[in-house]
Design goal:
- Helix content is 42%, strand content 14%.
- It has eleven helices and ten strands.
- The protein has helices at 2-5, 32-42, 83-100, 111-119, 139-147, 162-172, 183-192, 209-218, 230-243, 262-270, 275-299; strands at residues 45-50, 69-74, 105-107, 123-127, 130-131, 152-154, 175-177, 198-199, 221-226, 249-254.
- The strands form three sheets. The chain has a four-stranded parallel sheet with strand order 1-2-4-3, with helices on both faces. A three-stranded parallel sheet has the order 5-6-7.
- α5 runs parallel beside α6 (162-172).
- The longest helix has 25 residues, at 275-299.
- The chain is globular and about 75 Å long.
Length: 307
Amino acid sequence: MADLIDDPPDLSTVPAAAGELDAPEPPPPLDETARARALLAAQPVAEGHTELPGSLDPEDLPPVRAREAGAQFWSLLVDTDEGVIGTLRRIDSVRALVAACPEDLRLAHTTGEMSHARNCGRVAALLGPVGWTTLGGSAATLRAYHALGVRVVNLTRFDRFAREAVREMNRIGLAVDLSGADQDTVHRTLAVTRAPVLLTRAAPESLSDDVLGLLGDNGAVCMVTVTDDPVPAADVLDRVRTEAGPHCTGVSHTTAPALGYVPLFAELLRRGWPAQDLVGLAHANVTRALRETEFLSRANRTRRAVA
């Protein structure tokens, strides 16, 4: 009887019956590099500054780019002596490049077309920025560039023409790029524009904390260059995120396309950046800025054009 009233053995100590399988162990958590790779596969990068290749040799098309790129702003900046003609030649070259690579690139004029290109597995190609000096002080040139598909203009000095030109850009839906502008130009432009500005080749180290705060209030996007060492870019992005806000971060381009953007995003994950902020950095922030520019333009269509 003693055997019958003994406490039953703890089931956790009972050996498994022959043929029974142990419960599978949960998979190990993904490391930062794997998480960054997965995020960028779903949320590709919109690059703020892409240079045309030296030649459009069919053997070198499409041009080398980071595999995580989902949209690219193709620079139309030319030397001062090239002027409007040089800019038009660049526009023609970008269009020829897109036409030569239909399985890789798709020209986009709106945020809707950017999304459609991504959904089709293509990289969206956007025209701009064009240089301020190639406008010739003419709002008609602004409108002509817009009609050709340009969506960004680089404003580097706030001259007599700039105030009305910025208002006209707001009216027709051209984004203002303040890359290379001094702090006075940034201040004066932000006092006029009603749309978010871009810095497609941002150098935040040259901007004071208060200017970054103003850019944050405007909803601007500071697009930072990435090198083969992700730490300097991560340091700069940390400062922009702190002083301007996570909605103001973006990517300009990478000098090491073979490495791509995974090392940067992995570094930011190690620093505690949440996924939402990383999606903003990749493309959502610049898409939001362009969408707001489009909405403002639609609301201002009844305004008279600047002469």
